[in-house]
Specification:
Length: 455
Amino acid sequence: MLWDLWYFFEFSVGILIDCLSEMASEGEHPPTLEAGPEGMHCAWLIGLTVLGNSLRVSPDWSIAIVRTESNDGKGDTSQDEDFSDIAEYHILSMTSTDRMGNPVFCFKASCLPPRKECDYDKLLRYMKTEMDTLVESDYSIIYLHHGLTSKNKPSLKWLRQVYGKFDRRYKKNLKALHVVHPSTFVKVCITLFKPLISKKFGRKLHMNATLSQLSENFFVDKLDVPPTVKVYDEKIQAGLTKKGKKAGGDAAAPAEAVGTVFGAYLEAMEVSATVPDVPQVVVDIATHITDTGIDTEGIFRRSVSLAVVRQIKADYNAGRPVDLAAKNDVQLSAVLLKSFFRELKEPLLTFQLYEDFTALASDGNADTRIATLAKLITALPPRNAAVLEYLLVFLRSVADHAEVNKMGTSNLAIVFGPNLLWSPDVALSFSDTGKINQVARYLLEADPVQIFGSD
């Protein structure tokens, strides 16, 4: 405990000095702790945030291109760096998307090796390189605190490097930071420093005593949870049950009813009267976006109120009329579309064809790739193929406005890939995610006539 207190104190003071020094060099006055998006949050929370900062997948799934400063001081140079040794620790993993269709990343403290056994500078390069194209979108982090010890706790110097390397872009789009199994020390720090944390950041921070409390926002069964953490979680849950208490922290979500639209099987849904085999909700959303906000910058990359989303889902599932135009929020419609596909009981591209679609990512021959795509689409259930064709036509129309909305086929593939195909296994690897995004891009850029066989 004494070591922890000194660790926290020194890191806090170091960050404070860094912030004030940087501001003084720019001729600015020190802000209040509530001030602005760059307000100084509680230092240990910054440490948790940057430690958990998420990853995107590079086109080459074991080798990533990083930019590092050359020794001669001439600036950045591009070089290949093999991160396979870092990946083997499984410190970070992707858990597909949350219930709104946004990326989710899991940082596991128990997987951190002893400091002497890992090149933490390389880990930092890995994190920053992989995250660079993701920071334009909203995302969440799940931090599994159990397993952090004095032996594998990152050094103060490294934490300060992380704080300095990750600029405002990385912090701005962090939608939520969920800390699972917080220690007493972490909870005490939150209590003591809560008045100093900006309200905006405070709303992003959630404490979860057990994994089950994540179910309101995430697909808990898809989390890549280490066995030791699962055992610990079971003990915590058993203890709370024995005491007749609900788990502390954020309230656990009630069990969700099986939906008739959101969270349902595609073949069981009522379809549109005007577009054969396509659910009415998909037609409603696509029409609303096309008519009112297809030029919206960053569409599909921003989150909205979870309460509003939940109410609209409930209305659709109950068969109540929904007027999206009256909501006057194109980002809400965009979130609903991602959420609809992510919450399908089976992905649109199906579990059965998962291996076939992901294998396609390594096909460098455009002609054979088109032929394989056409074959796989033929193998889809008829309704899945019809919905896919409708969705791709709509997304291509969004991409046609990329100069304004900044959502070309590459960005749309990153956003929609994990919502159209995911592994039947517990969690996606970064390699799998890269392949899925690549397949989504192939679908978006392919000639519809060639892959669907219709005009």
